[in-house]
Amino acid sequence: MFRNVIVRKPAKSMVHGLTSANLGEPDYKKACEQHSAYLTALEQCGVKITLLEADERFPDSVFVEDTAVLAEKCAIVTNPGAPSRQGEEIEIKKILQLFYKKIEHIKVPGSLDGGDVMKVGTHFYVGLSERTNEEGVRQFNEIVDKYGYSCSSMPLNEMLHLKTGVAFLKEKDLVVTGEFIEREEFKDFTKIIVPESESYASNCIMVNGTVIMPAGFPQTQLAIENAGYIVKAVDVSEFRKLDGGVSCLSLRF
Protein backbone atom coordinates (compact mmCIF):
# COMPACT_ATOMS: atom_id res chain seq x y z
CA MET A 1 0.00 0.00 0.00
CA PHE A 2 1.26 3.48 -0.87
CA ARG A 3 0.98 6.25 1.69
CA ASN A 4 2.93 9.02 -0.03
CA VAL A 5 3.41 10.43 -3.49
CA ILE A 6 5.91 13.04 -4.67
CA VAL A 7 5.03 15.09 -7.75
CA ARG A 8 6.35 18.26 -9.37
CA LYS A 9 4.37 20.97 -11.13
CA PRO A 10 5.01 21.28 -14.88
CA ALA A 11 7.51 23.96 -15.87
CA LYS A 12 6.74 26.44 -18.62
CA SER A 13 10.00 25.26 -20.18
CA MET A 14 8.40 21.86 -20.77
CA VAL A 15 7.74 22.99 -24.34
CA HIS A 16 11.48 22.40 -24.86
CA GLY A 17 11.48 18.94 -23.30
CA LEU A 18 12.99 15.80 -24.80
CA THR A 19 10.75 13.92 -27.20
CA SER A 20 10.62 11.49 -30.07
CA ALA A 21 6.82 11.41 -30.19
CA ASN A 22 6.27 13.80 -33.11
CA LEU A 23 2.94 14.85 -31.63
CA GLY A 24 3.55 18.58 -31.57
CA GLU A 25 4.46 21.04 -28.84
CA PRO A 26 2.71 20.55 -25.51
CA ASP A 27 0.18 23.16 -24.39
CA TYR A 28 1.44 24.39 -21.01
CA LYS A 29 -1.94 25.57 -19.69
CA LYS A 30 -3.60 22.32 -20.69
CA ALA A 31 -0.73 20.34 -19.16
CA CYS A 32 -1.26 22.12 -15.84
CA GLU A 33 -4.96 21.28 -15.93
CA GLN A 34 -4.19 17.63 -16.70
CA HIS A 35 -1.60 17.52 -13.93
CA SER A 36 -4.14 18.84 -11.45
CA ALA A 37 -6.62 16.15 -12.48
CA TYR A 38 -3.88 13.53 -12.09
CA LEU A 39 -3.28 14.73 -8.52
CA THR A 40 -7.00 14.48 -7.80
CA ALA A 41 -7.02 10.88 -9.02
CA LEU A 42 -4.08 10.08 -6.74
CA GLU A 43 -5.73 11.75 -3.74
CA GLN A 44 -8.84 9.69 -4.32
CA CYS A 45 -6.65 6.61 -3.88
CA GLY A 46 -5.83 7.68 -0.32
CA VAL A 47 -2.26 8.95 -0.60
CA LYS A 48 -0.66 12.08 0.83
CA ILE A 49 0.84 14.24 -1.89
CA THR A 50 4.05 16.24 -1.64
CA LEU A 51 3.83 18.79 -4.45
CA LEU A 52 7.11 20.38 -5.55
CA GLU A 53 7.24 23.70 -7.36
CA ALA A 54 8.09 23.81 -11.05
CA ASP A 55 11.79 23.93 -11.90
CA GLU A 56 12.30 25.94 -15.07
CA ARG A 57 15.93 24.82 -15.32
CA PHE A 58 14.77 21.34 -16.27
CA PRO A 59 12.08 21.08 -19.00
CA ASP A 60 11.43 17.40 -18.20
CA SER A 61 11.41 17.76 -14.41
CA VAL A 62 7.67 17.04 -14.15
CA PHE A 63 8.65 13.41 -14.79
CA VAL A 64 9.92 12.82 -11.26
CA GLU A 65 9.83 9.02 -11.49
CA ASP A 66 13.17 8.97 -13.29
CA THR A 67 15.03 10.64 -10.40
CA ALA A 68 14.67 7.90 -7.79
CA VAL A 69 13.68 4.31 -7.09
CA LEU A 70 11.81 3.87 -3.83
CA ALA A 71 11.44 0.68 -1.81
CA GLU A 72 10.43 -0.18 1.74
CA LYS A 73 13.98 -0.35 3.09
CA CYS A 74 15.76 2.37 1.14
CA ALA A 75 15.58 5.09 -1.49
CA ILE A 76 17.95 5.05 -4.44
CA VAL A 77 18.67 8.42 -6.03
CA THR A 78 19.42 7.88 -9.70
CA ASN A 79 21.78 9.47 -12.18
CA PRO A 80 19.45 10.28 -15.11
CA GLY A 81 20.70 9.11 -18.46
CA ALA A 82 19.80 12.22 -20.47
CA PRO A 83 22.43 14.96 -19.95
CA SER A 84 19.75 17.68 -19.86
CA ARG A 85 18.12 15.95 -16.87
CA GLN A 86 21.22 15.51 -14.75
CA GLY A 87 20.79 17.64 -11.67
CA GLU A 88 17.07 17.01 -11.23
CA GLU A 89 17.89 14.39 -8.63
CA ILE A 90 19.59 16.85 -6.26
CA GLU A 91 16.40 18.44 -4.93
CA ILE A 92 14.62 15.08 -4.95
CA LYS A 93 17.24 13.78 -2.53
CA LYS A 94 16.49 16.68 -0.18
CA ILE A 95 12.81 15.76 -0.19
CA LEU A 96 13.50 12.05 0.26
CA GLN A 97 15.52 12.80 3.38
CA LEU A 98 12.23 13.75 5.03
CA PHE A 99 10.96 10.21 4.50
CA TYR A 100 13.98 7.88 4.36
CA LYS A 101 16.91 7.21 6.67
CA LYS A 102 18.69 5.04 4.11
CA ILE A 103 19.42 6.81 0.81
CA GLU A 104 21.73 5.33 -1.80
CA HIS A 105 23.04 6.77 -5.08
CA ILE A 106 23.82 5.74 -8.64
CA LYS A 107 27.13 7.40 -9.50
CA VAL A 108 28.97 8.31 -12.71
CA PRO A 109 29.78 6.48 -14.97
CA GLY A 110 26.57 4.65 -14.12
CA SER A 111 23.27 6.02 -15.40
CA LEU A 112 19.80 4.86 -14.46
CA ASP A 113 16.29 6.22 -14.98
CA GLY A 114 13.54 5.21 -12.58
CA GLY A 115 11.28 4.56 -15.55
CA ASP A 116 13.48 1.57 -16.34
CA VAL A 117 12.83 -0.09 -12.97
CA MET A 118 9.78 -2.21 -12.10
CA LYS A 119 9.44 -3.71 -8.64
CA VAL A 120 7.57 -6.99 -8.20
CA GLY A 121 7.57 -8.07 -4.57
CA THR A 122 11.21 -8.13 -3.51
CA HIS A 123 12.55 -8.35 -7.07
CA PHE A 124 13.49 -5.51 -9.40
CA TYR A 125 13.32 -5.81 -13.17
CA VAL A 126 15.60 -3.24 -14.83
CA GLY A 127 15.66 -2.28 -18.50
CA LEU A 128 18.94 -1.62 -20.27
CA SER A 129 18.03 1.36 -22.43
CA GLU A 130 19.43 4.54 -23.93
CA ARG A 131 19.03 6.08 -20.47
CA THR A 132 20.12 3.17 -18.23
CA ASN A 133 23.52 1.59 -18.82
CA GLU A 134 25.18 -1.60 -17.62
CA GLU A 135 27.22 0.21 -14.96
CA GLY A 136 24.05 1.77 -13.61
CA VAL A 137 22.45 -1.66 -13.37
CA ARG A 138 25.57 -3.09 -11.72
CA GLN A 139 25.49 -0.39 -9.04
CA PHE A 140 21.75 -0.79 -8.59
CA ASN A 141 22.08 -4.55 -8.15
CA GLU A 142 24.86 -4.05 -5.60
CA ILE A 143 22.70 -1.60 -3.64
CA VAL A 144 19.50 -3.60 -3.53
CA ASP A 145 21.34 -6.79 -2.63
CA LYS A 146 22.44 -5.12 0.64
CA TYR A 147 18.78 -4.71 1.59
CA GLY A 148 17.66 -8.22 0.71
CA TYR A 149 16.19 -7.48 -2.71
CA SER A 150 17.05 -9.22 -5.98
CA CYS A 151 17.52 -7.74 -9.43
CA SER A 152 17.63 -8.80 -13.07
CA SER A 153 18.16 -6.76 -16.22
CA MET A 154 16.99 -7.02 -19.79
CA PRO A 155 17.94 -5.11 -22.94
CA LEU A 156 15.21 -3.00 -24.54
CA ASN A 157 14.87 -3.13 -28.30
CA GLU A 158 11.93 -0.81 -28.95
CA MET A 159 10.86 1.05 -25.81
CA LEU A 160 12.29 4.24 -24.31
CA HIS A 161 11.93 2.80 -20.80
CA LEU A 162 10.95 -0.56 -19.37
CA LYS A 163 7.73 0.87 -17.95
CA THR A 164 6.86 2.38 -21.32
CA GLY A 165 5.56 -1.06 -22.23
CA VAL A 166 4.92 -3.04 -19.05
CA ALA A 167 3.18 -2.38 -15.73
CA PHE A 168 2.90 -4.61 -12.69
CA LEU A 169 -0.51 -4.55 -11.00
CA LYS A 170 -0.56 -7.18 -8.25
CA GLU A 171 0.20 -10.86 -7.64
CA LYS A 172 1.09 -12.13 -11.13
CA ASP A 173 -0.79 -9.60 -13.26
CA LEU A 174 1.09 -7.54 -15.84
CA VAL A 175 -0.15 -5.06 -18.43
CA VAL A 176 2.10 -5.59 -21.45
CA THR A 177 2.55 -4.51 -25.03
CA GLY A 178 5.02 -4.85 -27.89
CA GLU A 179 8.37 -6.44 -27.17
CA PHE A 180 7.34 -7.51 -23.67
CA ILE A 181 4.47 -9.79 -24.67
CA GLU A 182 6.74 -12.75 -25.43
CA ARG A 183 9.68 -11.94 -23.18
CA GLU A 184 11.05 -14.97 -21.37
CA GLU A 185 11.43 -12.92 -18.19
CA PHE A 186 7.64 -12.54 -17.95
CA LYS A 187 6.58 -16.05 -18.98
CA ASP A 188 5.13 -16.89 -15.55
CA PHE A 189 2.90 -13.83 -15.35
CA THR A 190 -0.74 -13.43 -16.29
CA LYS A 191 -0.70 -10.84 -19.07
CA ILE A 192 -3.26 -8.21 -19.93
CA ILE A 193 -2.16 -7.59 -23.50
CA VAL A 194 -2.43 -4.09 -24.91
CA PRO A 195 -2.87 -3.92 -28.71
CA GLU A 196 -0.31 -1.95 -30.71
CA SER A 197 -2.94 0.69 -31.50
CA GLU A 198 -3.26 1.44 -27.76
CA SER A 199 0.33 0.74 -26.71
CA TYR A 200 0.61 4.04 -24.83
CA ALA A 201 -1.96 2.74 -22.33
CA SER A 202 0.38 0.02 -21.12
CA ASN A 203 2.04 2.64 -18.95
CA CYS A 204 -0.33 2.65 -15.99
CA ILE A 205 -0.02 2.46 -12.21
CA MET A 206 -1.69 0.50 -9.43
CA VAL A 207 -2.35 2.74 -6.43
CA ASN A 208 -4.04 1.14 -3.41
CA GLY A 209 -6.41 -1.04 -5.38
CA THR A 210 -7.08 1.33 -8.28
CA VAL A 211 -5.41 1.34 -11.68
CA ILE A 212 -4.74 4.84 -12.98
CA MET A 213 -4.30 4.82 -16.75
CA PRO A 214 -4.37 7.30 -19.62
CA ALA A 215 -7.79 8.22 -20.98
CA GLY A 216 -8.82 7.44 -24.53
CA PHE A 217 -7.90 3.75 -24.73
CA PRO A 218 -11.18 1.84 -24.40
CA GLN A 219 -9.91 -1.63 -25.32
CA THR A 220 -7.20 -1.54 -22.67
CA GLN A 221 -9.49 -0.04 -20.04
CA LEU A 222 -12.08 -2.77 -20.66
CA ALA A 223 -9.40 -5.49 -20.50
CA ILE A 224 -8.12 -4.20 -17.16
CA GLU A 225 -11.66 -3.89 -15.78
CA ASN A 226 -12.49 -7.40 -16.99
CA ALA A 227 -9.47 -8.63 -15.02
CA GLY A 228 -11.25 -7.37 -11.90
CA TYR A 229 -9.67 -3.96 -11.39
CA ILE A 230 -11.15 -0.55 -10.62
CA VAL A 231 -9.88 1.93 -13.20
CA LYS A 232 -9.48 5.71 -13.17
CA ALA A 233 -8.67 7.13 -16.61
CA VAL A 234 -6.91 10.50 -16.72
CA ASP A 235 -6.06 12.66 -19.71
CA VAL A 236 -2.27 13.00 -20.02
CA SER A 237 -2.11 13.86 -23.72
CA GLU A 238 0.21 16.85 -23.22
CA PHE A 239 2.73 14.70 -21.38
CA ARG A 240 2.53 12.05 -24.08
CA LYS A 241 3.97 14.66 -26.43
CA LEU A 242 7.14 14.47 -24.32
CA ASP A 243 7.24 10.64 -24.25
CA GLY A 244 5.86 10.76 -20.69
CA GLY A 245 3.19 8.50 -19.24
CA VAL A 246 1.10 8.05 -16.11
CA SER A 247 3.87 6.44 -14.08
CA CYS A 248 6.45 9.08 -15.05
CA LEU A 249 4.59 11.85 -13.22
CA SER A 250 5.01 10.58 -9.66
CA LEU A 251 7.14 8.80 -7.10
CA ARG A 252 4.96 6.45 -5.06
CA PHE A 253 5.92 4.87 -1.75
The number of helical runs is 5
- Strand order, sheet with most strands: 2-1-15
Amino- and carboxy-terminal Cα gap: 8 Å
Class by SSE composition: alpha/beta
CATH class: Alpha Beta
> What about the largest sheet?
3 strands, mixed
Q: What number is the mean pLDDT? A: 98
Record field, number of beta strands: 15
Order of helices and strands: EHEEEHEEEHEEEEEEHEHE
Using the alpha-carbon principal axes, give the shape.
Answer: globular
Task: Give an overview in words.
- By secondary structure, the protein is α/β, with parallel strands linked by helices.
- It has a single domain (4-252), classed as 5-stranded Propeller (L-arginine/glycine Amidinotransferase, Chain A).
- Helix content is 20%, strand content 24%.
- It has helices at residues 28-43, 88-96, 134-146, 218-226, 237-240, and strands spanning 4-8, 48-52, 68-70, 75-77, 103-105, 117-120, 123-128, 150-155, 166-168, 173-176, 190-193, 205-207, 210-214, 230-234, 251-252.
- Strands 2-1-15 form a three-stranded mixed beta sheet, covered by helices on one side. The protein has a three-stranded mixed beta sheet with strand order 3-4-5, covered by helices on one side.
Short recap of the structure:
The protein has 253 residues and is an alpha/beta fold.
Which descriptors apply to this entry?
single chain, 253 residues, alpha/beta, L-arginine/glycine Amidinotransferase, Chain A, 3-stranded mixed sheet, 5 helices, 15 strands, 20% helix, globular
